[in-house]
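Internal ticket - ligand job 356, XIL:
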Amino acid sequence: MPRNCWIFHTLLVLVVALSEAQSPTLRQASENSGPLVGTAVRPYLFSEAAYSATLGREFNLVEPEDAVKWWTIRQKQGEFNFRDGDEVVRFARAHGMKVRGHCLVWDHNNPDWLNKGNFSAPELARLLQAHITTVMKHYAGQIFAWDVVNEAIDEKGQFRDSIWYNRPGIGLAGKGSAYVEQAFRWAHEADPQALLFYNEGGGEAMNRKSDAIYAMLKDFRKRGVPIDGIGLQMHVSNLEFDGKGVQENILRLTQLGLQVHITELDVSLPVDKSGQASPEDLSRQAEIYREVYRACLQNPGCTAIQTWGFTDKWSWIGSHSHGSEGAALLFDRMYKPKAAYDAVIQEISRGSRRSR
Ligand code: XIL
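stdout (structure tokens):
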């Protein structure tokens, strides 16, 4: 090789080695003692090479986006279909990842036979206990943490009307958190090793909803109801984010001895017809991601940060907003890391800490 060429080649190797040394993947950055870094996943996409490669490289935690909800597992009354959930567990095991389960008690994403079945309260109680028990036992030792109850409280801090609460409910209608407590007790009996979470959206900062959640969890802790943590969904829209309020809320929740998981982080942006967001919005988005990571990293009780998907190609935001919003995740539609990705890597590398 001519001398010039040789020098050039050596320099190139050095530059590549240096840049690799300086930019760990999200997963590597987290394994240097940050919180778990996770994402919601759809098992039917594992066959897409870029999807699997990015997922395996960047994350050490996965959560089935829809695959272990009632509407997937319980398509037919009396049957349990674990195929999709099992695929997620298999992928996780093959890639050394943990799995969160989502969710056992929710008023949404339930099958028609349940919604329209006109069941009595005792029948619903039996159905719910059997569901929690069968599903948690199936995944015992494989799913380490479960969102037992999802979105039970509304913006005013009241318990939402739901099939499990009061339509007709499992026999505890009008008794506030009693049905939530019952679900946690059944979950603990089913798999005493699993960490049990209450998961909620809209109560991430300080407001009437988060006050009501806090009061419920404080009471649960006082009375020894088996609960280990709270999931803060963190769907950020309109580029509005109250970092201070989120930190304050995480602090009071962890002071109850609970773990906090950020469970469904995404930051949706206005997009044009081709799904493109403006460069200004993408930079602001990166700063919001950074602030979310910072809020979690500052508190040792915040033990996982999970996004609701990872590529803008496959995100619920598009369908949810009828195409007016999107571009909410860390990777673009071509799986290229966005500014938000660089921001969280920086933040996690800077703030690395402690064991889980
Ligand atoms: C959403 C999924 O992303 C969609 O695929 C599905 O069609 C509807 O549910 N809060 C939750 C999640 O707790 O389960 C929801 O997931 C998003 C809002």
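Auto-summary: The chain has a mean pLDDT of 94. Residues 35-350 form a domain with the TIM Barrel fold (CATH 3.20.20.80).
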